[in-house]
Design a protein that fits this description.
There is one protein chain. The two termini are 16 Å apart. The chain is 39% helix and 17% strand. The chain is elongated. The protein has one domain. The protein is an alpha+beta fold. A two-stranded antiparallel ribbon has the order 1-2. A two-stranded antiparallel sheet has the order 3-4. The structure holds zinc ion. The site of zinc ion (ZN) has 8 residues, from strand 6 and helix 4. Zinc ion binds next to strand 6 and helix 4.
């Protein structure tokens, strides 16, 4: 846990947890090594370790959806995943699969998959809303304490101390 330049607590996911998510859904996270002009995924998961479990379930579901999508020569790819105002945000786009292939993506098939993708994201959002972004507990979640964060009572208490020491 650290404070950003505005004094707000900033949570950053540990590299080893990020790597586990990348392994589960390699196609969805295939742009993680591109540079910042092309994708925000180069910053990794812009949220705390506490949301790893919901993100793991989400990644498995996305890998399953991509498995279906790729048969229609299309795939879903993450552009950015971050915490904003206490919620997880997932930005994505589609592209042809394999990359630069001659096969024309079947747009109708792809459109049928959009609701599956939206469902997966909605499930993730609801789960994260009930999970502490810092420690992962699902007990005593609140969003109080000045800036909007999804934290349990214990982690929110630690955060107040962090802020008062630094200011
Ligand atoms: Zn917590």
């Amino acid at each position: 846990m650290q404070n950003d330049r505005n004094g707000f607590m900033e949570l950053i996911m540990r590299k080893e947890l990020e790597n586990r998510l990348y392994e589960v859904a390699p196609v969805f996270f295939s742009e993680k090594d591109l540079d910042a002009q092309e994708t925000c995924m180069c910053f990794g998961f812009e949220c705390g370790d506490g949301w790893f479990e919901p993100l793991l379930e989400f990644s498995k579901e996305v890998a399953r959806i991509n498995g279906i999508a790729m048969k229609s020569h299309i795939c879903f790819v993450a552009s950015q995943i971050k915490q904003k105002f206490g919620d997880i945000r997932v930005y994505w786009h589609t592209k042809s699969f394999p990359d630069m292939c001659d096969q024309i993506p079947n747009r109708e098939d792809a459109m049928r998959l959009y609701p599956m993708m939206n469902n997966a994201i909605n499930t993730l959002v609801v789960r994260c809303r009930n999970t502490c972004e810092n420690c992962g507990t699902t007990n005593h979640i609140n969003t109080t304490d000045g800036c909007i964060k999804r934290l349990c009572v214990k982690c929110a208490g630690k955060r107040s101390k962090t802020v008062s020491i630094s200011s």
